[in-house]
């Protein structure tokens, strides 16, 4: 998925965005120096990937508790696509419609900085 595709899906309300980075990365108080800005993609819900990886985690209940519609299409992102790939796989294994935005914040932050 490209940034343009994601932007179109978000504008059309066709996906929910799940930021699986730490709360500090999401808030913009931490991040990577290679990114021109810190923060998150507007409209994203933040659930740290470690919560998804917890033993015995009920993924559907966790997402629902954060206001994520588990019946819709979910796009996961992180900084560079690795954590979000794990998250998308975990959600898919739980029977949800999930995919990874590989460009993640590393790519999106450049759009914000323009």
Tags for this model:
114 residues, alpha/beta, Oxidized Rhodanese, domain 1, 4-stranded parallel β-sheet, 42% helix
Secondary-structure blueprint:
Blueprint: H1 3-11, E1 16-19, H2 23-27, E2 45-46, H3 49-53, H4 59-65, E3 73-77, H5 82-93, E4 97-100, H6 104-113
Parallel strand pairs: 1-2, 1-3, 3-4
Average pLDDT reading:
93
Biggest sheet strand line-up: 2-1-3-4
Helix content: 40-55%
By CATH, the topology is: Oxidized Rhodanese, domain 1
Largest sheet: 4 strands, parallel
Question: Structural class, please?
Answer: alpha/beta
Low-confidence stretches: none
Whole-angstrom Rg: 13 Å
**Regarding CATH, which class?**
Alpha Beta
String of helices and strands: HEHEHHEHEH
Q: How large is the share of residues in beta strands?
A: 5-15%
Describe the global form. globular
CATH superfamily annotation: Rhodanese-like domain
Quickly describe the structure.
The protein has 6 helices and 4 strands. The protein has helices spanning 3-11, 23-27, 49-53, 59-65, 82-93, 104-113; strands at residues 16-19, 45-46, 73-77, 97-100. Strands 2-1-3-4 form a 4-stranded parallel beta sheet, with helices on one face.
What does this structure look like?
- This protein is α/β, with parallel strands linked by helices and 114 residues long.
- The protein has a single domain, classed as Oxidized Rhodanese, domain 1 (3-Layer(aba) Sandwich), CATH 3.40.250.
- The protein contains six helices and four strands, in the order H-E-H-E-H-H-E-H-E-H.
- The chain has helices spanning 3-11, 23-27, 49-53, 59-65, 82-93, 104-113; strands spanning 16-19, 45-46, 73-77, 97-100.
- Strands 2-1-3-4 form a four-stranded parallel beta sheet, with helices on one face.
- Helix 2 links the parallel strand 1 and strand 2.
- The longest helix is centred in the last third of the chain and has 12 residues, at 82-93.
- It is globular and about 40 Å long.
- The two termini are 20 Å apart.
């Amino acid at each position: 998925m490209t940034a343009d595709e994601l932007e179109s899906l978000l504008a059309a309300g066709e996906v929910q965005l799940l930021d699986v980075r730490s709360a500090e990365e999401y808030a913009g108080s931490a991040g990577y120096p290679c990114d021109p800005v810190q923060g998150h993609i507007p409209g994203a819900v933040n659930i740290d990937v470690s919560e998804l990886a917890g033993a015995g985690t009920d993924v559907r209940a966790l997402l629902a508790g954060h206001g994520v519609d588990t019946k819709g299409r979910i796009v996961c992102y992180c900084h560079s696509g690795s954590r979000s790939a794990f998250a998308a796989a975990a959600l898919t294994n739980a029977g949800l419609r999930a995919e990874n935005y590989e460009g993640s914040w590393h790519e999106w932050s450049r759009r914000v900085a323009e």
